[in-house]
Every structure is written in C-alpha cells, then in structure tokens.
Amino acid sequence: MAMNYLEIIGTIIGLLYLWLEYRASIYLWIAGIIMPAIYIFVYYKAGLYADFGINIYYLLAAVYGWIIWKYGSKKQEKTELPITRIPLKYLPPLTAVFIIALLGIVWILINFTDSTVPWLDSFTTALSIVGMWMLARKYVEQWWAWILVDIVCCGLYIYKELYFTSGLYGLYSIIAIFGYLKWKKMMHGQSSPTEPC
C-alpha cells in the first residue's frame, strides 16, 4: 500500500515536471531531483531494475541540467542556455552510447537480476540516458527521444501493473508532441541564434 502512495506522489510530481519542461522552465530540475528519489523505491519494488538504476542517473543529471541551463554553455557569459537544434556531429556518438548502454544493461539484467522484461526495460533506460543529456543541453530534438520512451513505458507499466505511472506516461506521450512544437516555436522566437543543424 505504501508503494501505491509513493507512486501517486511520484505521478503528481511527474505532472509538475512535465508542465515545467513544456514551458522550458529551469525549475523543472527541482522536480527532476525529487521525482527520481521517489521512483527509485517504486521501480525496485516492481523489479524494474534498469529503471531503478536510471533514476540515480536522473538525480545527477538534474544537477548538471540546472547548472547548464542557469549559466549556459560558456561559463564566462553567465547567460541562460538557449533552445537549439542538435548538431549533426553529435548523432553518431549518441547512437553509439545508446547501443552500448542498451546491450550492457540487457546483459546485466539477464545475468544478474530476475527481470522479466530485460529488453524493454533496457531500451527505455538507454534511450532515457541519451534523452536526458539532450534535455540538459536544451536541444529541441530531445522531445523525439521522450515520445518514444513514453509510449514504450506506457505499455510496460501496464504490464507491471503500475497503473498510475502508466497513465502518467500515456499523458507524457501526448504532451511531448505538443512540447516539441512549443519548443520549436520558442526556439524561433529567441533573439540569440540557434546552433546549425
């Protein structure tokens, strides 16, 4: 029963996080620290060990994201990081990180845990690693990663009977599409130039 309450609280904080991310508000990182702290317990209890592990990464990434968004990519400028497109040169290394993370996590889950969904759990975790880094750098394409993660997670959490969390990720899937469109509009409305695609 306690896990149900934690899941509900995590869902509420997740909705706040999503709203702040949609608005490209730097305060999303505060929710981004609290939410994974809660879900560490929820996912461990559900046997979603890769999701459990990714939430430790989320905690660290939230601190990194706050610093990058607050001070921009160049510390001497002390300006908030603008929304930009991801440079094409980053796509090959990000793809490599995704594949290595996916295979590594699958191997760990199959050999060292009782996970019943090692491939799906690993897929969403590996893609989340890439998506979180893209979010921290404020790349508009980060929404593409989250749309895919959210759709897969929605089905996975139904299977694991985490219905509140599944509902949250179903909502994420829809709002992520609107988030991408909003960020594109905000990016074009910025006074500072965007990075080349």
TrEMBL record:
Protein name in the entry: Nicotinamide riboside transporter PnuC
Main localization, broad class: membrane
Assigned protein family: Belongs to the nicotinamide ribonucleoside (NR) uptake permease (TC 4.B.1) family.
Phylogenetic lineage: Bacteria, Pseudomonadati, Bacteroidota, Bacteroidia, Bacteroidales
Keyword Transmembrane helix: yes
Transmembrane residue ranges: 26-46, 52-69, 90-110, 116-136, 143-160, 166-183
InterPro entries: NMN_transpt_PnuC
Any one Gene Ontology cellular component term annotated for this protein: plasma membrane
Membrane topology field: Multi-pass membrane protein
Function: Required for nicotinamide riboside transport across the inner membrane.
Keywords: Cell membrane, Membrane, Transmembrane, Transmembrane helix, Transport
Origin superkingdom: Bacteria
Organism field: Bacteroides salyersiae CL02T12C01
Coiled-coil portions: none
Cell compartment(s), UniProt: Cell membrane
Xref: Pfam families: NMN_transporter
Single GO term (MF): nicotinamide riboside transmembrane transporter activity
